[in-house]
Design goal:
Four copies of one chain form a homotetramer. The first copy, chain A, is 31% helix and 26% strand. Chain A is an alpha/beta fold and 250 residues long. A nine-stranded mixed sheet of chain A has the order 1-3-6-7-2-8-12-9-10, sandwiched between helices. A two-stranded antiparallel ribbon of chain A has the order 4-5. In chain A, helix 1 packs across helix 5 (192-206), helix 1 (28-39) crosses helix 6 and helix 2 crosses helix 4. The first copy, chain A, is globular and about 45 Å long. Chain A starts with a strand and ends in a 22-residue tail after the last helix. The relative contact order of chain A is 0.20. The interface between A and B is large, with 37 and 49 residues.
Chain lengths: 250, 250, 250, 250
């Protein structure tokens, strides 16, 4: 299967912007995307499972189950703003192969909906951060870069790991333009301050007028979800150890 | 190939329940499924091999060979009970990719036979266990959860690894309902007490009337089979070490 | 690609026996197969490359190159004996997935040529061996087992790793009968004595009348080939360490 | 996807030679290919991305992004020389499977353009090197080997890792002829001296008349590119450590 996609609705969108918000460094994008979905009352329209996700289910507090999944939401006809596709999820793929496949499939869907612009959010890991963490950026082309710089971002120097970097690169191959906004973070916990910076910039660029006062709730929800999947350890900064191949056996 | 499936018979079943019983924590499901197959005289109808199983054969005591395999059995027209599909095997897949593929293929077959309900059994690893180990549960939806709670299970909090968790999640994507019954176990040996608890609950839910007095024999058979594949070490609690890539060479 | 197959000739064979002779424990099968090919003047008819082989070429003494490869040979109309397909090569696949794929493709070819019987040779690793190493066997079915036991083999108890075990198992799924002959070996070097035992038994079973006096030459050729691929280290018993993912880089 | 190929132009070439120049030992081929592209003003015509490349983007000094990629260039109607296809890139694939796939796809393209000859360049790692490093060679066949020996190369004894070896082997399966030129190098840094030797030989064989005075610039550009991808560590000889599976998470 690699990716199993279920599309619940094919929205008609007008030149939408794709915002990537999967878990990554400092969980900046993941918090920001969740907050956007809530504040903009975005509509859920597609879900993606990949055989490169973890092979498990986690339980909810009420005895339900939750699986590793990526989900797409949209907003349209926003007052004064562009239509949006928001890419949220509780995991990225575990293998390079899975990452390319996942990214390719989401870009397929976005392209089909008329999307040619992508914004990826993320953390830029630092040993120390200032109170107002700096935003860095990189873009598909000089013209788009200028737009990111105009938001107060500085030019990023380094590597953009995972889907945040991959989707800019694979997008460009299809003629997408786009930029990454990467906010300074210690990267060791869901970083609500960094997410606020990222959202402020996105707010400005997309004319979103999203209220950021409830951002702590999105960070807390993100923390709980990722803890349940073992991606964040409860109360520690410890990295998840690579699972044994025969993990299901004892 | 990924999965090679050989279907020996296509049974006509009436709204059957799929019971997953592969080796996992404490081998609870594996013992229980074997016992069900024996006691219900279930009919073997399909076998599945995956390129994500181990690449070896093991010998039987009498010079025969046994391969890593999953098998499907059915029972129908049981006096007072629903038709069943029992998913048994001597291994799960070694990779995440293989797990998703295996699970998807078995759900394909089950769906084709009219199945929309899955029960997965398993162990819930604990440092200590009481004499009558507690059953925990998680379900695809609140209504189904209630059925599991009615069997005396408590709400599970944690991760359900491997096929037991995956099949609930992938099933839900296809409209399957279902629950996991996870019994407390040390997880270090084939746990006949935990399997007895799981079977008692399944007995009650499915109106099975299966005699549990011969369960030790199923546990002993399970232990021997898994030892022959090196999944359980003879007389130890040691985990199987990851095989070298060139294992076939010396 | 996984497997790229080039068939140079489609021989018409009469109910042939497939003899597997890839590198494995003690290189027993590899030496035996090479000797058979030479002594029977078997005809080369197919070659298989797999993306699960090593990604390299090795040089010959004369500046040529050799690649990881599997090759099929045949003999037909032998005086008093059955037609043969001999499966030789300088490697098995590096991954479980690759092993299943490779094995499946060779069985495809064999089946198409009318083959329904497979003999796999191999080493059975022991800490100590006697001067005349014992042969052990396992078979697809009791009738075939009896044929192997009649050759002086004892019933094998244990695991048959790699293609030697896999091809018996995957073959049975297609209706192949067959047995494995596994000879005691220290497993640390190309073991000419073990290969001699294996060939003696094969000679007897297949009515081959192959002269074994030149077996040392086949062992030496096998050692040189496998050394050039780094599968045997020059002058040591050391196992090959897993290659770094970025091995091509420094 | 495995490989995503974008062909921008299908040049009409006359019996072209494919020159492989990916990063490898001492980065000999990578420097040499870049220099050829610049000096011959070769035309870019195809790009290849693979899901076996790293899943990241790196930033350029000016805020742009660069992705792991392979690119094909051509030159035609050169005064007195054969048409060329130059295979350049900032990475090889991370897995054996990916290497075979990548190599197969490039050979597909080359074959379609009428190419039947391949030259692979590379480093031959030594503990010490002389001032004028020796060139070693291996070839698809004796006739082609003679051509390489005539360039002053000695017969290579050893393994040719990665695409440099693989493409000779996979090429031969399709009827390509070709040779590898491997220059002695410490292998720990982009080795401009070794690249000069390789290019001198290629110059001679292909009647290229390429000026080698600007080779330092190509080496410096290669070093910077590979540093940005983390393939060369800034100022050290350290190998890149295998990335954690969940690298994107902290």
């Amino acid at each position: 299967m690699v990716c199993a996609i279920k599309i619940h609705e094919k929205p008609k969108l007008n030149n939408p912007v794709l915002i990537e918000g999967l878990p990554g460094i400092g969980f900046v994008a993941n918090i920001a995307a969740l907050h956007l979905i809530r504040e903009l009352k975005a509509d859920f329209f597609a879900e993606i499972r990949s055989s490169s996700f973890q092979d498990l289910a986690v339980t909810t507090e009420t005895g339900g189950t939750r699986s590793p999944i990526n989900q797409l939401y949209y907003t349209k006809n926003r007052d004064g703003g562009r239509d949006l596709i928001i890419w949220h999820g509780n995991t990225q793929a575990l293998t390079t192969f899975g990452q390319y496949e996942l990214c390719g499939r989401v870009l397929d869907i976005a392209e089909e909906l008329g999307c040619h612009f992508i914004i990826t959010l993320g953390g830029f890991k630092q040993e120390e951060i200032t109170k107002t963490p700096q935003i860095y950026c990189a873009a598909s082309d000089p013209e788009t870069l200028k737009k990111a710089l105009d938001l107060g971002a500085k030019v990023m120097v380094g590597q953009i790991f995972g889907i945040a970097g991959l989707s800019i690169g694979l997008g460009r191959l299809r003629g997408f333009k786009g930029f990454s906004l990467l906010v300074e973070t210690l990267g060791t916990h869901p970083d609500v301050n960094a997410a606020r910076q990222a959202l402020s910039a996105a707010n400005k660029f997309l004319n979103l007028k999203v209220d950021l006062s409830g951002l702590d709730a999105a960070a807390e929800k993100t923390r709980k979800t990722l803890e349940s999947f073992g991606i964040i350890r409860r109360g520690t900064k410890e990295k998840k150890k690579e699972e044994s191949q025969l993990r299901w056996f004892i």
